Amino acid sequence: MATTSTVKLFFSLTSVLLCAVNAAPSSKLPKDFVVCKLKDPALNECIKNGLQSSIPLLSKGVPNLGLLPLDPMRITTLDINQGTGSVKIKLSLKDVEILNFHTLVIDELNCDPKTYSLNLTLHTKEPIRVESLYTSKGSILIMPINGNGTLKIAYDDFKANIRMVFKPELKNGNTYLVIETFYWGFTTSKMHQSYTNLIGGNKALKDNVNLFLNENWEEVLNDFKPAITEALSEYFITIAHQFFIRIPLEKMFVV
């Protein structure tokens, strides 16, 4: 597995800023959000059920809270410059859409109010799909992958784990949570890839490259994973930050 990669990420920052500027700061939770009691012995189950029930709402986005849609996630550009391991490629993605996070299922949740930490494990009921325009130059394993066109990727049996640690900050008499640590990782049982217009549009070569990439998907994924993980981390953090800067702890929970 490659250990170094350079990722330049300029995902929807314009949208984020416009959302933050145009949406008046709100301190009211949508009426369908579940408010749990911090001292409830079944706190974890309450938060888990509340988050699960909010997935349809989060998938569409919540404008009055400045929350971007969860599905599809839109990333304006994503540049991957990978020069070690089996992947030696400069890959530029544009107009990236990531779909099917609306099928998220929370399997386990553990919240510790004393350490302000939250751990989740989850999966999706449908494959996570990535669609974008691409420009590439270089090679993956031994196959040249020069071209520009459309790229489609699908992750079967997508599973993820997330860990967040917050720092409480007092502002105007209310406690707000600031994200101090964010980690997430994912697994998949199979990654499918399809590039159009590879190697000057030569159909035979394009088909051979796509076949080769799909047969060797695990090695390809190992080298691409740091960039994919970082891109989605930025998106997740942005969504979470927009929520926590507007809703104080005292309104998220009954303390």
From TrEMBL:
Entry keyword Signal: yes
A single BP term in Gene Ontology: circadian rhythm
SMART domains (alphabetical): JHBP
Gene Ontology cellular component terms for the protein in this record: extracellular space
Signal peptide positions on this chain: 1-23
Record has Translocase as a keyword: no
Listed InterPro entries: Haemolymph_juvenile_hormone-bd, To_sf
Assigned keywords, A-Z: Biological rhythms, Signal
Family membership: Belongs to the TO family.
Protein name in UniProt: Haemolymph juvenile hormone binding
